[in-house]
Design brief:
Helix content is 68%, strand content 0%. The chain is mainly alpha-helical.
């Protein structure tokens, strides 16, 4: 089965690529680029917009894992029905406007961003396409159902590692945050983008849980031998814990977001870093 796929017309792919672009811009403290991308997302993916409606059709499929086959089939049928009800011409115009804004306001490199679940998004796009033959559509639907019924990816069982120094994991973070994006960072930025339409309610709830998790992990890190025996490293680790604690009752600002994103990478490097 060989079907041409235009990723610029794949609404979910473009959305995920833009979210990643925001993440990198925030981490690199590129405020201008961050603001431009956020403006594009707010403009084109507002509640009730054609692109937001199609995005929800995609999400109902690619964000679901570990359900029964019967449930997966029912969700798939509902998603197909919702997709068919969308105004195809209006959707095409909205996609064209989005592509045009990305090219003019940011740059076309956004479309080259690495999106981990790109293959799944391409499969869903081809399944939704009216140009796909009945035979191919059934094959694609089976692939989607298989993914929806597969168990969620297991969480990494992190353990303390040897030979970790504060400078090393901070250095690694600064060198690699533009190339790799942790799942929890992606989730945080996705909720950050969504917060523009729900008064940040979901973001606040998520941050409360995530900051508590990070505080616990950073507190545990003070017992790691390489950190404990280095007074400067220990003080800096404790300072991170104190800063996270201070965010409990503060407003959500870019400083808070930046600190949480960096701490997420810091925790990953401490507990699950590469020994290189």
């Amino acid at each position: 089965m060989k079907t041409r796929h235009n990723k610029k017309r794949n609404t979910a792919f473009v959305y995920e690529a833009l979210v990643r672009e925001v993440t990198v811009a925030v981490l690199k403290e590129n405020v201008d680029r961050r603001n431009k991308v956020v403006t594009i997302i707010k403009k084109h993916f507002a509640d009730g917009s054609p692109l937001r409606q199609q995005l929800e059709c995609y999400r109902s499929l690619y964000e679901v894992r570990g359900v029964s086959e019967n449930t997966a089939k029912r969700i798939l049928n509902e998603a197909k029905m919702a997709s068919r009800l969308l105004d195809a011409h209006g959707l095409f115009i909205s996609q064209s406007d989005l592509i045009d804004d990305v090219n003019k306001e940011v740059d076309s490199q956004v479309f080259n961003n690495f999106v981990p679940n790109y293959k799944t998004l391409a499969t869903i796009s081809q399944m939704f396409s009216p140009k796909t033959s009945p035979r191919d559509r059934v094959i694609l639907e089976n692939q989607i159902i298989k993914a929806m019924t597969s168990p969620p990816p297991p969480k990494v069982n992190v353990a303390g590692i040897d030979n970790v120094t504060y400078k090393t994991f901070v250095g690694k973070f600064n060198n690699k945050y533009g190339d790799e994006l942790l799942q929890e960072q992606k989730e945080l930025l996705t909720r950050y983008i969504s917060s523009f339409s729900d008064n940040a309610l979901e973001l606040k709830m998520y941050l409360n849980t995530e900051i508590a998790r990070l505080k616990e992990k950073m507190t545990e890190a003070t017992a790691i031998e390489d950190i404990k025996k280095d007074e400067d490293m220990l003080k800096k680790t404790e300072a991170v814990v104190e800063r996270l604690a201070s965010y409990a009752k503060s407003e959500i600002t870019e400083e808070v977001l930046m600190t949480v994103l960096k701490t997420q990478s810091l925790v990953e490097e401490i507990y699950n870093g590469n020994n290189d």
